[in-house]
Amino acid sequence: MSATRRQFIRGTSAAGVSLGLGEWAALLPISPANAEEAKVTPGLVRFGPDIEPIVRLIEDTPRARCSAMMIAQLRKGLPYRQFLAALYLANIRANEVTHQMAVLHSTNQLTLDLPVQERLLPTFWAMDSFKFHQERAKAAPSLKPLTGSLPSAERAEDEFHAGMNNFDSERAERALVAVIRSQGANRVAELLWRYAARDWTFIGHFAIWVANTWRTLETVGWQYAEPSLRVVVVTLVGEVARKVGQDKTLKGQPYWTNRERVQKAVATIPANWAEAGSEPAFTRELLAAIREEKMEVACDLAVSRLVAGKVRAGAVWDAVHLAGGEMFMCAQKNSAPLHANTAANALHYVFEASSDAGNRLLILLQAVGWMCLYRSAMTRRGWFREPRQILDLEEGSIADTPEAAVEEILAHLSFGSGDNLAVDPFKGTYGAEFNSQPWRHEAAGKAFAFARKFPGPQLLVRAAHRLLPLKVDWDPHRIKFPIAAWENWRWVSPEWQPHMLAAASYSFVGVDAPDTALTKQVREAVRNL
């Protein structure tokens, strides 16, 4: 095992020059040689005769044979980009926003960031996750035909808001289709953003699904806007929302009070309020209010300082992301702690994508309020038995070279070393049991030291991300979370980036985690090349 670990780490040099082709070298001839070849453009994803058979193969081939089937197609000359497009289409054709649909943005990003010989692996993983969920679906989902007449282009936006505010999905769907047909993508996006940030009921999933569906839509092409965004509307106000106990009043949530704050503030807030900018004292103050679950106090603090011109949005986002990272340090759970980070990521993306000042301010204040809701949810479940504060991190002892330090951090990360070994790399993710093993905290201290000692953490993150498609199971959170955590790292001010890297390390798997059945299937297919 130690030899295997050393071999892996040697393939992650800081300069990226000696990548160590290893056992995946045989995939080089059929892998995308550069990021441009891995892009999907609208012309690639039409249901034409060149791609429909590939979509059908993905849908109809048994899960255990999918990787070998796709390798065979790639060897016959199928361009990688068409493989990726067909996988997107297979998910879109399922006609529902689900975790395996939302993770496609993450796997595509991971594909672009990996060494050339490994770029196929995340897409094989995404295909396997799709097949896992496809096998367990009780019935093939389908998008119902629109009923009734579409409103006129002049009335469409008002009708959309009326449908969304009255939780009338059919009315909102018809109106959104009318807007899609009469206006451009940017205008459609602005209509959706405020509702993406409206409802925390399903621990932030609505924001995550809207943001990631939109990011995938930008990849696959605007011709799929109507079915994709109709499903988004149904998710926000239709059957899915009702199943999780949707309350039209959003009782106990900050949405309506934050709308009032925005209405009062938007006319007088400084023009530069939405810029990046660090204010450490304010960030600490806001983080303390979130930690104490003082939702109204936290939202008032953020908006008052913004209006007064004393801080900018970047300092507020710093507190939001630090709060999410801290919660996961306290309890590695798949509900509130994990989603505090992925929802913060979705809301921050929506904030960056929006150009409407009212929407942007509302989204920012909702992010602050949601962090308090996540803390409250964790308190109710008793998940602060190991309370940790992200600003109190201490540097762990690490090796003098970045390569050796990466090996130290990842070698035993999943199971630990010595006599107190875990039996499951993801034990405690669900249910009442905890998954904050001592070696996880130790690794976080080492990651914190790594970020402070060496010029950039890319070497550590690259090595950790290379393990994901080999070691994690079908659960979309296994890849969606670490990719979001890395993007969150890039969004915070430089002084907080070491803290965010330490928090992100809790989402990594170690070299000691076993390879998945999918990895073994791909390995066997590669041996037969």
Textual characterization of the structure:
The chain has helices at residues 2-10, 52-60, 66-75, 80-92, 99-102, 104-113, 120-136, 156-165, 169-182, 185-196, 205-220, 225-237, 239-243, 255-265, 280-291, 295-307, 313-330, 336-353, 357-380, 402-411, 438-453, 458-471, 477-491, 497-504, 517-527. The protein is mainly alpha-helical and 529 residues long. The protein has four domains: 20-136, no CATH class; 156-205 and 220-243, no CATH class; 255-380, no CATH class; 393-516, no CATH class. Helix 16 packs antiparallel against helix 19 (357-380). The chain is globular.
Work out the number of β strands.
Answer: 0
Give the fraction of residues assigned to helices: 55-70%
Give the DSSP E fraction (strand runs of 2 or more residues). Answer: under 5%
Detail the poorly predicted runs: 5-21
Could you list some keywords that capture this structure?
529 residues, mainly alpha, 25 helices, 59% helix, globular
Short description:
By secondary structure, the chain is an all-alpha fold.
What order do the helices and strands come in, and which of them pair?
Layout lengths: L1 H9 L41 H9 L5 H10 L4 H13 L6 H4 L1 H10 L6 H17 L19 H10 L3 H14 L2 H12 L8 H16 L4 H13 L1 H5 L11 H11 L14 H12 L3 H13 L5 H18 L5 H18 L3 H24 L21 H10 L26 H16 L4 H14 L5 H15 L5 H8 L12 H11 L2
Helix pairs in contact: 1-20, 2-4, 4-7, 6-7, 6-23, 8-9, 9-12, 10-11, 11-12, 11-18, 14-16, 14-19, 15-16, 15-17, 16-19, 17-18, 17-19, 17-23, 17-24, 18-19, 18-23, 20-21, 20-22, 21-24, 22-23, 23-24
